[in-house]
Structures are given as C-alpha cells and as structure tokens.
Amino acid sequence: MAQSMYRTLRIPTSRIGLLSGLLAIAVNLVIPAPAPAASDNSAPKWKVWTYNPSNRAFKGSVPAKDAPNAIATFPFPVAPDTALLITDHGSYKGTLLGDLTGKTISATVSTAGGPFTYYGANTPSNPCPGTATVRFYFQTKSPASFSETDYWWSNPVSLPLNGLTNNPTPMSVSLNPANWSDYFGHFGADPTYLAAFNAAVKDVTSIGFSFGGGCFFENGVGAPTGGSFTLRSFSVAP
Length: 238
Prior knowledge:
single chain, mainly beta, Jelly Rolls, four-stranded antiparallel beta sheet, disordered N terminus
C-alpha cells in the first residue's frame, strides 16, 4: 500500500481538526502498569477519546471501566467515533513513559460483540479496502504548538478488531524507526525524520492505541450492534 495512504488523511478531512485538538489534549494522558492484578485500579489512568458530532473535536475524557484480570475495558459507541485509548499517568514515568529508546511495546487485547465498523468506510473520502483495526500510538511534547513528529503510529503493525472477539491476542512492536510513521505519514527511518523520531522515543509523554480503518489510522471505530474492547496487559521492555 502506498505510503501516501498513511498521511494526515488517517483522519478524514472533516476530522483533522479533531485530531489536532485531541493531540493537544493527549499530551496529558496516562500510561498503565504491565499486567495489573484484578485488584489494581488501573483503568482510571487510561482515557478513551471519541469524536463529537461536529467531527472537529473530541468529547471529554471517559475513564475506561475495570475488567477482571485486565487493565481496562470500554464499549464502542454505535457510531464509528472512538479514536484512542491512551494514558500519560505520572506514576508510569520510567516504565511506560519517558525514555523508551531501544524498547518494545507489547500488549494483549480482545473484543466482545461486534461487528466493528470504521468511519467513512466505502465512501469517496475513504476508498481504501480494509477492516476496523487497532494499532499502537505514542506521543511526545515539543515547545511548538504543533509538530508532525510529535505523533507516531505503528505502521504496518495492527490487528483487525473483528478477529479479536473473545480471543485474547498479543501484539508487539519494537521502537525501531522503520516500524513507525508520523502525523503526515513519514516513516521514522527516513533520514529526514530519524532524529525527530529518536527524540520522540526519548521522551514519550503518552502511549496506547488508536482505532481506525481503510485509508486512515485514527478515523474512529464503532459497533452498530454493540461491542467492547479490553486491554488485558500492556508493557514496555527491552
């Protein structure tokens, strides 16, 4: 698939403004501890971000609900509007946040219900074939109001949400620049963007997942007949 498919158009044009707003908010999110016990109240440290009806801003943060033997779970809305599940909790500085150079992100996830749909499927604004997916996402914070290299998505590592139903599935990706692309679709391994990627990895301020499909990575996912996503474990390690 052409790299151009992973450009800003991960978010359809009508939703680009929303992403910018969310990204500004996401700088302040939280990161959970790896594989918490059932008694660990880790879910409130994560936030779910969902597009509002204007498609140009996110709704307020919604703490994910606790799930037995898992970090968090949340229901998808009927409309394909859920974009992110991320965390920036200060208690994870040095484990899930901070300098992650040379490390690998790993998680176990599952879904219930479904089928899951993504925003703009089979429309001229999102003509690429595909299915609703979840992928890793991380962010850093720069002094500028916006920089494309503050935001990174695992590319091509992702999982199809419709294949995860009642099936806990591991996913993993190393923080190698060849495995990530930025807000405008530039890969970290590109010599022009390598230094910026390395700087972002050295100071990760929020981390988690994005939901999308077709041509885009974060255009939103829903479950018209009901469905949920569960994060069962999350870790960052050498």
